[in-house]
Protein 1
Amino acid sequence: MAPPHSRPVGRPVGRPVGAVTRGTTNPNRLRRMDRWIAAAHGRALASADDPLAVDLGYGAAPWTAVELLARLRTAAPAAEVVGIEIEPARVAAAKSYEREGLTFLHGGFEVPLPGGRRPMLIRAANVLRQYDEEAVAAVWERLCARLAPGGLLVEGTCDEIGRRHVWVALGPEGARTVTFATRLGSLERPSDLAERLPKALIHRNVPGEPVHAFLRDFDRAWAAAAPYASLGARQRWITTVRELSAHWPLTDDVRRWRQGEVTVNWSALAPR
């Protein structure tokens, strides 16, 4: 999807905002993000009058929207999911997967929901990766403006089978946190996650930028925790993150660290 401000002059009113993505998707690709959302935002969804979630830019197949609904309902049984895609053929292909609580619509960054509904969650995974860094702030602002009070935007990137994932969580006021998540058995060093940084950060992984310093410290703590590898990758990760917490403003605890995650305040990693 192209940034909202790049719409050509004369573009027809009502046309979805954005451009078609590659659409690459696989079953279970977004499981780490989904589980984090259910844990971090499930209570807010469960208590909402309209527990609506949007899977924005779900791709060539509807797997991620189907799975998002199942995982959200572990925390919020009344949750609904709307999958939104800018490519009409993808929406048509997904219609056969519709059921109670799951629908698919044609649209883009304008997030066109019937009846003026505003979602408690917008998930945009692997959508902004193809855009210029300068476009990100405008897209974030536009999507956050569509959220219901207390809503959450989760935007990030993962590899093709979901082993490595980094995402930013945003509220109506803007960016809040950055989460790094990985399959621990496949990790050589934490900085391997750098290739999955979201567009707002991936070009900032250079000396002098906070995200570069964070990944440098992460690698150093990982190396210092090498003796714990004999107890398993999970114990090494937990020891590493506990050391990291002495120097960086982490927002989670060992319950999430055990899942191969760590979440840090956005303000600590925001580009300079």
Protein 2
Amino acid sequence: MLVFRDETNRKMLENHEKAGRLRRLSSGIYSSDLETDPAVQIRQNVVRVLAYLRPGAVISHRSAILPDFGASEGLVVVTDPALSENYIHNLPGLVVVATPGPAPLASDVHLGGVYASSP
């Protein structure tokens, strides 16, 4: 199970990591699954990871039409209205390219924190 850091749980996550109950997969992303490869965990939870990294962003470009949003290929592109320039997140097994762009449209699919671009 993935757990995401925020201001309320920061110290608890650090303590669980030191005690060996959690593993840090990437900045702010932890897992209680100490066995599965971090790249697999990130790819299997791509929507939750995107919602943590780029809340309100729209999965766009080619990523929007792929069944797993490009996770199996290791690349996901999102459009984020909060950005003024491109930003790249390098995660285990996944690169997230965030580009500036418009906010979600009414026809975009809400996935819980992020959106998938409508056709």
